[in-house]
Amino acid sequence: MNLDDYGVLFGEALSRTGIAVPEDTLLHRAAEEVLEMAVAYRDDGATFLSSDDPVNALAGFAYGLGWLDAGLRLGLLAPFAAHPPGDLDACIPDAKIAHLHEKTHRYRQMLRDALGMVEAAPDPASPLHDGSVEFHAAAESWYMAGVERLEAGDYAGALARLSYGYAWLDAGVRAGLLRVTGERGLFTV
Q: What's the pLDDT score for residue 89?
């Protein structure tokens, strides 16, 4: 898949997605914020792509899709679907490889640090506690998938997976499943 197709996939997913919780409920605000983040990063990705910045376009699309999928998993958005990063066909031209390498290594470090700076926010007896564990595990799993791709030399695949996983961590914090115990600047709160 190339970056244009990735952006189209994202746009189509957003067009099918709506807020699943009633407007007068406490969770509606969380649903609005998650959806706003997904839309904002889709728009950022499209802007970067049209500005000849495929590295940031890739990161934006993957991060936004992570927010979308996290919101769907929370039940804040519907219909339920998943849009994990797939294979991206040589979407970064040779002239942008240095930027891709720098950003991928930076995101690897940031996500690794962020994973160690959160803890479950809900009480262990709450059903939401299991959700906090699931969100942390999802972010960690995507981190590991990103590291595997990085070690295999697939920088675009690594950046997509690291960005996608980071979104799950950020969405978990924003939705109240995870509490930041370290540097708040690593999170979108």
A: 76
CA torsion sign for 82, 86, 91, 97 is positive
Instruction: Say what the pLDDT of residue 90 is.
Output: 72
Q: What residues of the chain score a pLDDT lower than 70?
A: none
What string of H, E and C letters represents the secondary structure of 106-136? Answer: HHHHHHHHHHCCEEECCCCCCHHHHHHHHHH
What amino acid is encoded at 104 in this protein?
Answer: T
Backbone dihedral region of 86: left (phi > 0), alpha (psi from -120 to 50 degrees) or beta?
Answer: beta
In whole angstroms, give the CA distance from residue 187 to residue 183: 8
How far apart (Å, rounded) are the C-alpha atoms in residues 37 and 104? 21
The answer to whether the beta carbons of residues 167 and 64 sit under 8 Å apart is yes
The pLDDT of residue 87 is 86
Ordered by start, the domain boundaries in the chain are: 3-83+96-186
Please provide the DSSP assignment of 58-95 as one string. HHHHHHHHHHHHHHHHHTSEES----------S-S-GG
